[in-house]
Design goal:
The protein has one domain (1-74). The chain has no helices and five strands. It has strands at 5-9, 14-18, 27-30, 35-39, 45-50. A five-stranded antiparallel beta sheet has the order 1-2-5-4-3, with no helix packed on it.
Amino acid sequence: MEKIKVIHDIIAHTLTIWLGDPKTESICEETSEEVIFMKDKNGKVIGVEILNYKSAHSNRSLAVETIVKSEEAA
């Protein structure tokens, strides 16, 4: 699996999560729930952006939990 990149823009109030290479983005699809899916030319989702995102904590930090599973456990 590639690296996952998480970007929290506190000015624009967005949370962007890249699951693949942003350079391969070909199309974006917005849902009615203010979520944007970024896709590559094959239609595979390589990123997700949440609009109007505000952290529940006033300290403007974002906690990220990472859980790694082995291929055998998946």
